[in-house]
Amino acid sequence: MSRRTIVPPLTPSPRHTGTEPNWWRRAVVYQVYPRSFQDSDGDGIGDIPGITARLDYLDALGVDVVWLSPVYRSPQDDNGYDISDYQGIDPLFGSLADLEALIAGLHERGMRLVMDLVVNHTSDEHAWFRASRQGPVLPDGDVNPYADWYIWRPARHVPGLAPGRPGTEPTNWGSVFSGPAWTWDEERGEFYLHLFSVKQPDLNWENKAVRDAVYSMMRWWLDRGVDGFRMDVINLISKTYPLVDGPRSPGARYGSCFEAVANGPRVHEFLAEMNREVFASRPGHILTVGETPGVTLAEASRYTDPARAELDMVFQFEHVGLTDGPGGKFDPRPVDMVALKQNLASWQAALAPTADFTEVGWNSCYWDNHDQPRAVSRFGDDDPAWREVSAKTLASVLHLHRGTPYVYQGEELGQTNTVFTSIEDYRDLESINHFREQVCAGADPRTLVAAMAVNSRDNARTPVQWDDSPQAGFTTGEPWIDLAPNHRQINAASQVDVAGSVFEHYRSLIALRHQDETVALGTFRLLAADHPSAWVILRELVDASGGRAQVLLLAACSREDLVLNGAGGLWEALAAEGLEAEQWVGAEQLLRASDPAVQPGSGHTGAPGTLPGWDSLILRRRG
Length: 623
Prior knowledge:
Oligomer: single chain
Mean pLDDT: 95
Radius of gyration: 25 Å
Strand content: 15-25%
Number of helices: 16
Structural class: alpha/beta
Number of strands: 22
């Protein structure tokens, strides 16, 4: 692993952001979940050569950055988020040479690669953990330098229970993936902490040697041409010591560890150190985005303020949690559109620039990813009569927010949730563990499967639907997870270069962000915030000479027509907020979900008197 291959530098392209310092603020990121993107060898699992074979597709879409979910060596307990070798590529996906070819192909087209960085935990098969479980003293009597690379604790003394028995865990914490957050290790005679799977032990970031090893690994990847990192659950790396029992909800089997592990006392110190040790001396800008479950508005500002040099942006989860019922994600409820738009607007306000336009934070904007159900099924309307137009309107809403938009593979096609009717259909560890735990507690299996179908992570992990062939063009073999049954109707072959398709709508939105300063950098304002179905966004930019440009989104987010004109119409409500209909009579129509003829420069102006259900319109005016 010591060899260093020179990867071609980025070749600027007119379809993508270039090399200016703030290129990432205008960029659009596309997430690839490798095992479900494209299989090149017929084994039913997507791989790196398959991604490389589809680069022209991504180039045509116009995205600037590809975020690659983990392809490192892994036992695949959590589909690659349990890493056993940070500097090796799992043969399931290809080789280091394959990855270098992917980076070269991206750079040649003017695109960049962001790697998933999973350093809150490793696999229990990582060499570090195998060494750590030997304890403080090695068999030959030497001190074990890896002894405290992970979080080990002795059993709690409970009369009548032997150490290691259930009930002797050091704290009462539950794991995210069900069961206790502690597992007894017979070899060491202690418990180790795993916030996620039993095969994902948490690293001890208090140990400087751990941090140095992580930083060295990150520099190694940057040397090979990687352009940035998406950092998995990075706000969990600093725990609050001593570790003590957490609050337990009524009826809950385990206590919550959130307050003890999220946004801990040294997390900002660690990220600032990472920036100094890994990024500061590098030419150009290295993109960093942190996954930060449970992050607050105030904390997000601290993470993303450029003056603090920690992260460029964070992923927050408040808006995707709005469909969780009292029992959590597997107790789903319909989305409240008013709550959804107001929540996203609160994040816009919290990370907005100052009055003199100094940036003090930055948003990541996303509907779905590998851990979330499909956007059109969750926030839109996946009924065949409404799927396409609602998918396009959701795209317009997201891309009119200020921040960096993320597109998850298949989102640009309007892919929907799948239809799983049995636990045997599932591959997701979280879903399977939840099912087993609840069945053991007496829950009805059929009711559980029905509830899981809405929010299971497997909804996002069905293969990309490339064409209407039996395996959707994903593989010539048997796919590792069943295809969504609607792949004959929803696929890339039926959409690329087809006017009015969801793909072409995404392509137009991405181009608009590249070309229009107001969309990329203008201020954000949510209007008609309490309207039950209208989503209205005003973006504005004032140039150095005082010239004003405005971009307005009018969106109907239900099946009901949205009346704009007349008494009781939307314009009447907007006038009360200072937005007059007369100002927009001659405004340029930029993009409309229901009409592919509307494009920048097409000559269409003004707004209609009514927007049909799930339709949306983007307008632009200057002056």
